[in-house]
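Design review, sub-item: ligand-bound model
Attendees: FS, YL, KQ
YL presented the inputs for the adenosine-5'-diphosphate complex:
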Amino acid sequence: MKTADVPGVPGPFVEQLHEAGIEELYPPQAAAVEAGVTDGTSLVASIPTASGKTLVAQLAMLSAVQRGGKALYIVPLRALAAEKKAEFEAFEAFGVSVGVSTGNYESEGGWLADRDVIVATSEKVDSLVRNGASWIDDLTCVVADEVHLIDDRNRGPTLEVTLAKLRQLNPGLQVVALSATVGNAEDVAEWLDAELVDDDWRPIDLRKGVHYGQALHFDDGTTREVPVRGGEKQTAALVRDVVDEGGSSLVFVNSRRNAEASARRLADVVEPFLDPETTAELADLADDIRDVSDADTSDDLADVVARGAAFHHAGLAREHRSLVEDAFRDRKLKVVSATPTLAAGVNTPSRRVVVRDWRRYDGTGMSPLSVLEVHQMMGRAGRPGRDPYGEAVLLANSHEDLEDLQDRYVHAEPEDVRSKLAAEPAMRTHVLATIASGFARTRSELLSFLERTLYATQSTEEGRLERVADSVVDYLVQNGFVERDGDTLTATNVGHTVSTLYLDPMSAATIIDGLRSAGDRTATASADADGYAATEGEAGFQTYSIDDEDAGEDEAADSRVEKPTALGLYQLVSRTPDMYELYLKAGDRETYTEVFYERETELLGAPPSEYEEHRFEDWLSALKTARLLEDWADEVDEARITERYDVGPGDLRGKVETAEWLLGAAERISGELDLPGAVTVGVREAKKRVEDGVREELLELVSVRGVGRKRARRLYGAGIESPDDLRTVPKSVVLAALEGRRKTAENVLENVGREDPSMEGVEPDPDAAPAATFERAGGETDDADESQTSLGDF
Ligand code: ADP
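KQ shared the predicted structure:
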């Protein structure tokens, strides 16, 4: 079918496609059009990676808009939202407006209503529905990208429930679900009352295989010799082999750290093959990459890029990612080592794909990737029009491995998509949301809503859905989130807050209990305020004088009340099911039992006794997690933290982000509980400190863009304590504090709005250089020479 013959899409879009060289639909795309995707018919398209799913979505959305409707494109990852928006912005040339929903509801509820096409993650859409965004009712077409992720334990239920809600809200809604090839696409189609295009057609042949010994063994029984030299790794040999014949490779690994290490090694492999022209272009690209941010990652990436290799993972800045992706597509970069984020949605084909790691750390141990995930990575092999075919390979060390990998991935069919809604936290969260947002006002309405989920379609056990729903409602009632009056169900105020905050109700219950206990202690202490002030610190609580900005109206300005410590709050949020705690390793039990008794008075909520083994262990794990967060907020060096707790930088980042979010939620909840002001103040401070990884005195400085925890400490050491100081102190002092880095100093001054930020002719003040080390409470020192890191740098 010719693109020009597709009914119902705007003419200028067809012209844009022509300009991009797309005149003929791929067969699965033609099948989608024949099934009615441009007439408002719902469709499930289960087709391989790189077979043109995006165009199917575009045709559906544009024809919906052409008919006067409004379309929503749901992406699985925040990183992809911006990419999709950029892709769809070409629609604006013919008057179709595009918006992306990333910020909070309040700031964008209005303007998104005017957009024809909106891009958002499923979490975002769920929250918009919970908050009652008005434009949701106007949607006529919803596209769900990577719908097979409904099978994902963590994120799947939200996508599933969101689709069910949107369909209930807009009964005539067209749903276009794009999926990788899965085992049971027909189940998904049945659930969504949709037509099905299930096709394994690909625009370019794909040969899947396993490398073992000196050769590649392909699925069709053929082999290709790829010798491994002495001392060389298999991956290096495979990359060298392809670059030697002018092609590029994509190597998938299982962690950010591995991606970076692999890129460094592979740079050695490809560098000798670069011609002088490419080398010059790469040098420019490396400069651009260095300019994106002053983080270590920027330098590390630039170093490998200059040598023809790159790494790619979700920890990179968006500018980094797009620079890498473009250069790889332009064939300047010869190899990219990536975590699987790249397989999800970014269009970066290469002649050869090496799936180096097919196991991943899942929190307890290494577990194999699903066939579906591996096939998605493999699907990135082969650039249509450029390569004769694509090759995707796994690596075997033994003959046994070879056979195992062939069975496990090469010849295997992808798994079925199964609903994960029945998992307890998902059920608790979504049942509360369904009640709080008024979707269900009675038990029967709740049940009939749940009937609309994939879970209901797939569950065969009679009465199971009802039982699960009833026990979850009981839990919500017991914890004060929902009130039950006969058949009627209503969310309480706190229940509403918990739902809009996106918390697992069990996390909320833990936090409420902890904050109340903090409030109780405060109350006792403030009753005896004067006497207590004298025993400052004795109970492990810092006393806190409420000053004007934080004082509750009813509290006298001079009353002294306790503020929960950061550690106490970190341990509290670490105990919730929304935080993955650190595991206790050998010896940790003793260490943290000791810490537990030393700092017991800081901990919030009723502590378990050592004999309640399970609970005690849980408190110790949470305490270990809390100590990590406390170290971070005490400016302990990142490298030292990762070593001390035996975690990766990504884990640290994950914990910090989760703590930030949970403390933000705790702050909101504490507002509802009518607790003494000091509790809220404590929560707010603990949150800010963990957010920036600094002690209290640096909070103002780190609010300046370009100033991370280390730079802030250096500036502080040079006597610069606030943004205002940055605007007024002699520039020579700023330059000295920033170790003579002119460009950095200029950027910082510009960001803080200093009138003349130029450093031309300025020399660092030799007397102003900060002390090279920062003494901490524990007597440790940090090497001030280590370059700047901030949270965005992992
Ligand atoms: P998927 O989402 O299925 O992984 P994409 O939608 O990203 O795949 O498409 C992969 C590539 O194929 C894109 O570069 C796209 O421009 C191109 N493409 C899509 N449809 C066609 C077509 N009919 N003819 C030629 N190229 C196409």
